[in-house]
Amino acid sequence: MSETSLRNRVAIVGVGESDIGKVPAMTGLGLNAQAAKRALDDAGLKPSDIDGLLTAYSFTEPYFMLGSVLCEYLGLQPRFNASLVVGGATPAVMLKHAAEAIVAGQAEVVLVTAGENRATGQSRDQAVAALTAVGHPYFEQPYGSSIPGFYAMIARRHMLEYGTTREQMAEVAATTRRHALLHPNAHMKAPLTREQVLAAKPIADPLGMLDCCLISDAGGAFIVTSAERAADLRAKPAYLLGIGEFHTHEHIMCAPSLTEFGATRSGAAAYRMAGLGPADIDVAELYDCFSIVPIIEAEELGLCPRGEGGRYWLDGRAAIGGGAVPVNTHGGMLSHAHAGAAGGLFGIVEAVRQLRGGLGARQVEGAEIALVHNEGGILSSHCTMLLGKDKA
Amino acid sequence: MTETLPSPVVNADSAPYWQGAREGRLLIRRCDACGQTHFMPRHLCPACWSAALRWVEATGRGTVHSFTIIRRAPLAAFAPRVPYVVALIDLEEGPRMMANILGDDALDTAIGDAVAVCFEDRGEGAAVPQFRRAGGRG
């Protein structure tokens, strides 16, 4: 059976962010709810219009069946609901599942959310210990491995094979911070220089504290509906032009390579569905849990040749107005927010906003096609999407 | 209070592996159908799905594919050990596994270093495979 194309069939018609940063007055579910309400208001829809809900997972709150739990919290009784777990890739994969459900007639208006109170809902030690569980419980955790350590091993291999430098990785954090300072809701509000990143406390060589993403309280949400219905709604729709996923492993010890990952395949699937290529992209929101990650993704997704990702940042090409495809215009997970699956979801929110336009100094001039990439695990699960201001 | 380093968790897939470690032997799985060796131990071969697997003793020689020096321990039990090396080791037989590099020269580890297996006591006779630098580059 041939693939059913999702091109031009659905659109994101509402986006929302919760309050971000340290938000002790709100629970994880509350952050999801606040973001959902803002997304629904943005779309000009009512709660009764929602007939599908997808959400991710929580490390801070003890709920099983999080999708059903969130429906219950929001007073929704949808005909389509699930909680999905493919780590950081979850938001993009949720969009794919929402699109498939809408195209199959299983839902008409799907609310997609993610969010956790990771900054204040747990102690810092609890946060680090919970994330340690991402390592293999029997064959990695007994060695005191950590998520920064896993990505550090990937960074070191990239440095060896392609000559990538710590300075280039530090520039990812510095560029991203400059973008975050243009975003009214970003967690980080103070400037950050490359020198500060290089001088930060070492965590897992070659990564320092400021090569690592934030721990935030944050929730994000978006509303997906059919392209037909989108045309009648208040907000400018962002059409889904192409989307694809690829999964190669979960634990780093089983990764087929430390330099070549599944983003190449997920990206190729998205480009093929859309009938577009890297040269068509105006703005890219890449997953940036660690500074090395968007470097690798930029290469795999064709924004630059293999091995030149570090130079893409150091030369200023990833910056807004840098003459190439700007990356992480909202500040990414390094500077805007990271709270579980919400981190990658904010890339989708930002892509929609860039396509709508009017973001002032943060606006990428003439943005018509946006690429968003989410990855989960240790560059294990990948999902790439292309969104358009117009249908392709 | 010093917490002890974690002991191996034994299950049906891994019981012979951890028993081997108690005896100072590094055991890996080899498929009788396709001849591939793999790590970690599984019920079937991830290359061909045959369940005709046998345990073979690895030479314990390998090379460092990549590594990191952990400066901030993820769990309190590892804090006294900081800084320590976590590495991915390519075994001579092919499979890749994770371990620490132990020894006085561990922090000098480089990609491509030859390493040899050793076993670290984790209490009550249990042991985990570890590696030491063996001199030379693989």
UniProtKB/TrEMBL annotation, chain A:
<protein>
    <submittedName>
        <fullName>Thiolase family protein</fullName>
    </submittedName>
</protein>
<dbReference type="InterPro" id="IPR055140">
    <property type="entry name" value="Thiolase_C_2"/>
</dbReference>
<dbReference type="Pfam" id="PF22691">
    <property type="entry name" value="Thiolase_C_1"/>
</dbReference>
<dbReference type="InterPro" id="IPR016039">
    <property type="entry name" value="Thiolase-like"/>
</dbReference>
<dbReference type="InterPro" id="IPR002155">
    <property type="entry name" value="Thiolase"/>
</dbReference>
<feature type="domain" description="Thiolase C-terminal">
    <location>
        <begin position="244"/>
        <end position="389"/>
    </location>
</feature>
UniProtKB/TrEMBL annotation, chain B:
<dbReference type="Pfam" id="PF01796">
    <property type="entry name" value="OB_ChsH2_C"/>
</dbReference>
<feature type="domain" description="ChsH2 rubredoxin-like zinc ribbon">
    <location>
        <begin position="18"/>
        <end position="53"/>
    </location>
</feature>
<dbReference type="InterPro" id="IPR002878">
    <property type="entry name" value="ChsH2_C"/>
</dbReference>
<protein>
    <submittedName>
        <fullName>Zn-ribbon domain-containing OB-fold protein</fullName>
    </submittedName>
</protein>
<dbReference type="InterPro" id="IPR012340">
    <property type="entry name" value="NA-bd_OB-fold"/>
</dbReference>
<dbReference type="InterPro" id="IPR022002">
    <property type="entry name" value="ChsH2_Znr"/>
</dbReference>
<feature type="domain" description="ChsH2 C-terminal OB-fold">
    <location>
        <begin position="55"/>
        <end position="120"/>
    </location>
</feature>
<dbReference type="Pfam" id="PF12172">
    <property type="entry name" value="zf-ChsH2"/>
</dbReference>
<dbReference type="InterPro" id="IPR052513">
    <property type="entry name" value="Thioester_dehydratase-like"/>
</dbReference>
